[in-house]
Structure prediction request, 358 residues.
Amino acid sequence: MTAAQGFETKSENDMLAQRADDKKSVLSTDYSDNFEFADLTALGSQRFLLTVDTEEEFDWSSPFSRQGYGTKHLAALPKFQELCDRHGIKPCYLVDYPIMDDPLGVELVSSYAHNNRAEIGVQLHPWVNPPFDEIVSHHNSYACNLPPELERAKLTNLFNAIVERTGITPDAYRAGRYGAGTHTTDILTDLGLSIDTSVRARFDYSEQGGPDYTHHPVSPYWIRKGSLLELPLTTVFSGAMRSAGNVVFGEWFGSQVARSMLARSNMLERIALTPEGIPLAKALEGIDLAIEERVPVINLSFHSPSLAVGYTPYVRTEEQLDDLYAWFSNVFQHLHDRGIRPTTMAEIKTASQFPWLV
Ligand SMILES: [Zn+2]
Prediction:
């Protein structure tokens, strides 16, 4: 199994290893009938979760570098947190090493978490996370491509920095660039993390040396039953061919040209639930489709540098920043109107383990 194929289960470590159906390779490239979905009925209803890739500013169009990044946008975090407060939403800030190296980053996320306004998770950007033992390259920007000991050392450093500096023990992990792989499972389990949210279902990064999640489900499933849950980012298909989307999107219409033709003709379009590059009307359509699909947890995400002007391709002007805030306000209102309440990593963890708690 290659790293690009993702996690695999090691049933001997499973809480319920005696269950024969545990032997499946849950992040294989096979179709979704190989995935064991988690029972989240204890959540009571469909919910949504807001995950924030909380990370340094860097030039997205330049090669990866250990230097030259900034964390200036952190000054804009309180405004976003206040918006979440007003809507009763506790975002999960998936923080990386540069954020934990900035006293303001530590102060903000710590106070939000300690005041029960937000959660803190882990996000690994290996190129700016010690130890620095690898060559900085496109390939090595996916942590799953590193030697397993180095992926482990980086993740352990980051985890310890978060615990020491914030006083919070995180539950959730997201690999930067969605780069989770075969060895990630052991590392997460050993650190005591119980939720992975690295899978961007219906996206394929293999051309760039990253994972292929084309056939991964959007619904949460077990990587290790009872101990490690996968909570994919939510992406839906719309259009007349949407029920076939999982099959055809990657294979028959692999090129960007074919994809935009399909989208323009209303045949098939992929909608990622993020304000970054997805206009409000599309996002609302995508949310309605996710509700229709009965996705138990609608997982919205974006990158924190988009909260200030000039740091990501999506927010280059004040007007685009206003649009971003309008997007959030409208999306939160729409979810509220549709009866979809927010949830948290902690609630999801408890709900997923509920079948064993009763
Ligand atoms: Zn990132």
Remarks:
- Residues 318-337 form the longest helix (20 residues).
- The longest strand covers residues 47-54.
- Confidence is low (pLDDT under 50) at residues 1-32.
- The pocket of zinc ion is lined by residues 53, 55, 123, 125, 176 (CB under 6 Å).
